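Recap quiz, item 2
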Amino acid sequence: MNDQYDPISLEQLLCFNVYSLNRALNRFYQAAFGETGMTYPKFVVLSALDEAGPLTVSELSARASMEPSTLSPLLKRMAEYGVLTRIRAPEDERRVVVQLTDMGREAVTLVREAVLEGLKGVDLDPSQTGQIVKELGAARARIEGTKPARQLELGPMPPPLTNC
Amino acid sequence: MNDQYDPISLEQLLCFNVYSLNRALNRFYQAAFGETGMTYPKFVVLSALDEAGPLTVSELSARASMEPSTLSPLLKRMAEYGVLTRIRAPEDERRVVVQLTDMGREAVTLVREAVLEGLKGVDLDPSQTGQIVKELGAARARIEGTKPARQLELGPMPPPLTNC
DNA sequence: TATGAATTATTCGTGTACGAAACATTTGCA
DNA sequence: TGCAAATGTTTCGTACACGAATAATTCATA
């Protein structure tokens, strides 16, 4: 449809390419992780803790670029798995300190290898993606520091509120 | 932790940058979409249909880079909103043809403007991202055509199966 | 022309994802 | 000191996201 004049297509949009590549990567890793229960977000959490040591939930939130409300149930599951511990900080009981267990440190090594090997297999390991990674990081920084200029003007279309 | 020798950090990984930029973009658009009920995946579906005309679920799946099992409930909701219709193809009743309504065509115009304006605000509109978009597209193509070389070897850690 | 295989879509179970609200604790200041 | 505001985390409701199982239809071929 949309006859002559050519609006910008999805495939030309940065957001769509990021969106679809992200899910392609997730599917790829999920295939590699198989039945182990490992997932990409869990790998991110493990990595962040491995790099930075024990962190509170909000520090981890910043590192992993994930909201606390996303982390909370994720961390609970991971603690059940035994890869990390969650302990209220004694000096400020609002905080919860998250820390890898020995099992967690072993896991992160294996998973990191699998992830890097996977990326190498498609020519996307860090030695080949320096420039693009830099640009993506810059884009994220700009977006996170910006509020949308304008609200979408669209008759609200939340579901017809099936008058129950 | 992880003392001297420096393993590759999350921030250097393409996958992490794609992962975190994707969510930053989602949050950004969600802020612009506000209470309208619009979401980024819905925008993708609207756009794909606007570009290609009526499509079956699996054709749309390919265009939008989304699994049929994700599309199915999404399309149901969108049909309730009134932006599209889902009709079994008479000549092959296995297929369901998805088509924009007039309301859907109006919506896609407004949403597309909002999306483009948002991208422009952070210097990410198509005029400035040609190269990076090309590389992301190429990366996706390589990943989608590849199976992971090796399975992750990790003692399965699905939840301890709380013996209920 | 029957009937098993292939194709297409939906349903189901689980796991992110996030804003808003709820909750607990600590801080700041009257 | 005492209590409102601020801070940090969890809970809740909703919306993706996908593989596996299911269901409905069509195809292929014996």
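The first strand of chain B starts at residue 55 and ends at 56.
The radius of gyration of chain B is 20 Å.
End of item.
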